[in-house]
Amino acid sequence: MESPYFNTILQFIAQDERYSKEMTAAKEEFERFAGPIYETDRSYDARINSFHNWYILDRPLQGRGIAPLQYFLEYNANTLPEHELRHYQELQDNLHSVFELVRFAKGKTRLRDLLSGRKYDIEGTEHTRLMDRGALFNSRIFRHGTAYYVSNYFLPHPAELSGLIWEEARKVKKGGEDPKAFVFRLVLFQSRYDQYQQMEPKNIYRFGD
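Structure (tokenized):
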């Protein structure tokens, strides 16, 4: 889902010199736990969009303690048309996780959240039609009204390690690890997998280390 609302928020933040500089620091922070983002990466667009999602939705702004989305909503609460404000508010209702592509049906893509087991029928197949059933990837799901949409990035994991990732997800569900830490560890592994093609995937996805 390419959302013009994300771009509007990024432009809004960039207009304020204080927060424009902070975005650079935020990217360095993100890279420390999610892996570096290089313009030469095969999945550069996906990884920079992953960072933008995290920055807008999750990371508190210094001195305010709220994420850029909340700051934008507070600042524009009395100036945006009600229907437009509602679209921005809906961005708060998102799920950041690792998903399995279950199947395609009637113009929708059914995804399963590995951590909750819940299934979501996502609008459209234009972004998922090249994936195989059973594929695992990191992304976010957003709700708009009664419909669900996937975010503007996919970070796919090697098919041969699906069983291992499922096993680790089960451990998290049983209380063995912080779900958010697990999700971002997969983002880090995917970064290394993307950058070190000469390495065996099993030597990158080392959960026990």
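The first helix runs from residue 4 to 14. The mean pLDDT is 91.
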